[in-house]
Amino acid sequence: MLRELVTVDDIEIGIKADNWEEAIRKSSERLLEKGAIETTYVDSMIKVLNENGPYIVLGNHIALAHTRPEFGANELGLSFSTLNPPVPFGAKHFDPIKLIITFSATDSDSHLMLISELATILSDTGIMEKLFDAPTKEIFYEQLLEGLN
């Protein structure tokens, strides 16, 4: 499913951000451009993070930016943004964040296979190091697909 959903154009390398809020706004731009999400979706991600803390931080240096579908998710969407320099999100043991995966889903079920594929990639520390260090979006994309094999 990831292979069909994500293209090289869904990847940004080396985003510069002064803080986690700016990082989320910048990492959301691709999904906004595609129409997968509305600006209300981005605002909701930031609001919920302010209210609940860094719940989107999944592990070492990785954040999965998302919120509830009713806040402006128009379609299933996924984008990847590496941060340079990495940005702290307030997750003590997992900061700073090097990779933000921005995710949108329109319901509670249609994305489960996609999340399963992502989990396989995220649990492979070798692949993750290659993704963190990818110098171009083309190389990032190749490494991402290698993680599915």
TrEMBL record:
Using the record's annotation, list all stretches that form the PTS EIIA type-2 domain.
Answer: 4-147
Specify the superkingdom.
Answer: Bacteria
Lyase found in the keyword field:
no
Primary localisation category: cytoplasm
Q: What keywords are annotated for this sequence in UniProt?
A: Cytoplasm, Kinase, Phosphoprotein, Phosphotransferase system, Sugar transport, Transferase, Transport
Compartmental location: Cytoplasm
Is Signal set as a keyword in this record? no
Q: Name one Pfam family in it.
A: PTS_EIIA_2
Described function: The phosphoenolpyruvate-dependent sugar phosphotransferase system (sugar PTS), a major carbohydrate active transport system, catalyzes the phosphorylation of incoming sugar substrates concomitantly with their translocation across the cell membrane. The enzyme II UlaABC PTS system is involved in ascorbate transport.
Task: Name it.
Answer: Ascorbate-specific PTS system EIIA component
Name the species this protein comes from. Tigheibacillus halophilus
